[in-house]
Each structure stands twice: as C-alpha cells, then as structure tokens.
Amino acid sequence: MKSVKSLLFCISLFASAITMAETAVIVSASNANSTIDKATIAKIFLGKSKSFPDGSAATPIDQNEGSAARDSFNSAVLGKSASQLKSYWSRLIFTGKGTPPKQSGNDADVKAMVAGNAKLIGYIDASAVDESVKVVHKF
C-alpha cells in the first residue's frame, strides 16, 4: 500500500512539472518588436493581421500538429482546440479568405527558422530559447 502511495505521489509530481512548462512566443533577435500582446499574436496566427505592432510584415510559423507546444499555444493564446482550428481554417480556405500558418516541425526547427528571418513569429518551449531569438510573450 505504501509503494502505491509513493508511486501516485511521483506521478502527480511529474504531471505538475509537465503542466508548468512555459511556452515562449519568439521573433528573430533582429526584429524591432520587444513585446507583443496576446491579442495581437492571436490576430497574426488567425490570419486577421499580417503585421507586427511596428507595422513590419509578420508571418506566423506553427509547430507540427500534435506537439505539446502547439496544443498549449492554441489553447492559451488562440482559445481554440485543434479541431476548432481545423474548422476555422477550412472555412477560410474554402472561401479564399486565408491560409493557415506554415507548419515547420518542432522547437529546434521553429527556432532556426525564426532566428534567420525577422518577418517570422513562432512559439517554442521556453527552455529552448537562446540568444538567436527574442521572447515577445510567455504563457
């Protein structure tokens, strides 16, 4: 009985550590924007805006479907589940009013793409941030 309680305690610690992971919205270190609010980020990723707050062009980059960072981002920033986003983009594509952000892989892939292009905005696990990118929002 004692070992079961210990096992359950370890599992709960592990689960809480997973949920405490932060996701960082990033831009290139050369991008002039230093912070971007959640509403502006959502507009960029939902195709409602094509520019950063300073007026420069913004192109969103998504992680692959099913990644933990993408699920967290969709829920916390966009306020939508994966199925709601599929439906949203299906309607826009069908009517010719938009295209979804390009999918580019995992944290390392997104960071490499964003670091090399000041027009891109993406999101990665906060632990993967380095000097090549700038964090403009965390959640």
Keywords:
139 residues; 5 helices; five-stranded mixed β-sheet; alpha/beta; D-Maltodextrin-Binding Protein, domain 2
**Which CATH first-tier class would you pick?**
Alpha Beta
Question: Which architecture name does CATH use?
Answer: 3-Layer(aba) Sandwich
Strand order of the largest sheet: 3-2-4-1-5
User: How many distinct helices?
Assistant: 5
Largest sheet: 5 strands, mixed
Structural domains: how many = 1
| Strand residue content | 15-25%
| Inertia-based shape | globular
Q: Could you say which structural class the secondary elements and strand pairing correspond to?
A: alpha/beta
- What is the C-alpha radius of gyration, as a whole number of Å? 17 Å
| Count of beta strands | 5
In CATH, the topology is named D-Maltodextrin-Binding Protein, domain 2
Helix coverage percent: 40-55%
Mean pLDDT: 90
> pLDDT below 50 for ≥5 consecutive residues: which ranges?
none
Task: Provide a compact summary of the structure.
The protein is of the alpha/beta class. The protein has five helices and five strands; from the N terminus they run αβαβααβαββ. 24% of the residues are buried.
Structure description:
By secondary structure, the chain is an alpha/beta fold. It has one domain: 3-Layer(aba) Sandwich (D-Maltodextrin-Binding Protein, domain 2), CATH 3.40.190. The chain is built from five helices and five strands, in the order αβαβααβαββ. The longest helix has 18 residues. The N and C termini lie far apart (about 40 Å). The mean pLDDT is about 90.
